[in-house]
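Ticket 4471: requesting a sanity check on a complex prediction with FE2/S2 (inorganic) cluster. Repro inputs:
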Amino acid sequence: MKCSHQANSLVPTKNGFFCNAHGSSFTLEGKVKNPPATGNLKEYKLEITADTVNVMV
Ligand code: FES
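Returned structure tokens:
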């Protein structure tokens, strides 16, 4: 949930993610929609079981 521009925390919206530092926005899949960010959001693999979700870093 960190912006790829300068690592500000992102705000989730119904259409994706918004950075209120400089106005970048991202799709729900983490692709850049509006600059100044030029890189997509970092992706992590998940391991999901019946009762846990592990983020693989
Ligand atoms: S830190 Fe997000 S747009 Fe600059």
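Notes from triage: Residues 30 and 43 are 8 Å apart (CA to CA). Leaving this open until the requester confirms.
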